[in-house]
Amino acid sequence: MAAQQQDWLGLAGKIAVVTGAAGGMGRAMAAGFAAAGAAVALLDRDAAACEALAADMSGRGARCVALGCDTTDEASVRAAAEAVAARLGPADILVNNAGVLRPGPLSTLPVAEWDALLAVNLTGYLLCAQAFGRGMTERGSGALVHIASIAASNPQPRSGAYSPSKAAVAMLSRQLALEWGPSGLRSNVVSPGFIRTPMSESFYAAPGIKERREAMLPSRRIGTPADIADAVLFLA
């Protein structure tokens, strides 16, 4: 009974892949999976930061590997999937978390910036789902969790391509659930709101921003990466 309670999420022995693992939320997710007994593949474009994270996690007893991966590049994603299978085994869980934010008004947004953001925030999610989900469908089980945003349903001023990209992530998840559900896969979305991470830290540099944001929230508290990690682990 004690062992069952400790692994109530059923993640012990599973193999989880986290993209954007070197970022604030990615680190929290990776730590959460490791604490739940899963092996973790850490994928990030910043290979050095990923290696440092893996060294820290391994020192704490986690089974993990770090892989430099550009999720916008199909060959890079395919190579990462092959490396995960060779070093850890077939993936049971994919967390599509890698993302970028480039604010600016749509009226003057260069098409190159639009394309660059969609390549990371949307196309990269599809490439990873294809590369890691293929084996899941063959085995008849697996879980995909995609990080969207409240911006997916609530447009925000000067968010540029960010809000459209996250709205597309929400629909991508639903489409994957429809197509792959009969093969035993689950596809879900977590949509963070105000979460303080290294990517959003610049927003809090202006005086009074933290207090104004807290006042907008019923809990009067800015979210943390651990809050999102807990939701991701539950859905996984």
List keywords for this structure.
236 residues, alpha/beta, globular
What does this protein look like?
The protein is an alpha/beta fold and 236 residues long. It has eight helices and six strands. The protein has helices at 2-6, 24-35, 47-59, 74-87, 111-139, 162-180, 209-216, 225-235; strands at 15-19, 39-44, 64-68, 93-96, 142-147, 185-190. A six-stranded parallel sheet has the order 3-2-1-4-5-6, sandwiched between helices. Helix 4 runs parallel beside helix 5 (111-139) and helix 5 (111-139) packs parallel to helix 6 (162-180). The longest helix is centred in the middle third of the chain and has 29 residues, at 111-139. The two termini are 22 Å apart. The mean pLDDT is 91.
